[in-house]
Amino acid sequence: MTGATTERRPWAYALLRTDKSERIESVESRRIGDLAERLGFELRGVHAANSDADFAPLFASFELSGITALLVPSVLHMTGWMDVVRHHVDVWTLDPPGRWPRHSTPGITTAFLPGMGGNR
After folding, report:
1. What is the value of pTM for the model shown?
2. What is the DSSP secondary structure assignment for residue 22, as one 8-state letter?
3. How far apart are CA 48 and CA 33, in angstroms?
């Protein structure tokens, strides 16, 4: 035993709207997995759905479960939910590439930050 500790990577969750995607689910999942790896997240799960029927309880569960980011292929997968989910986590999108930061101060919205860069 070397005594070295391994730092836990921040947790992310992925969301795929199959009815909003031009790619098949396995391709989108792979792209999201690559994004998580590139950004230094541990991907804790992928939710593939053809509607937003169960989004509210999913998003509400993020903070209690330690999720700090939601990864999605595009903003289309978040239609109508972007502002809501940003009260809980950062949202990373492949299209456009970048981050929609979590709302950290009530009433103050941080703008979209383009690019994928390095770790968060």
Report:
1. 0.86
2. S
3. 14
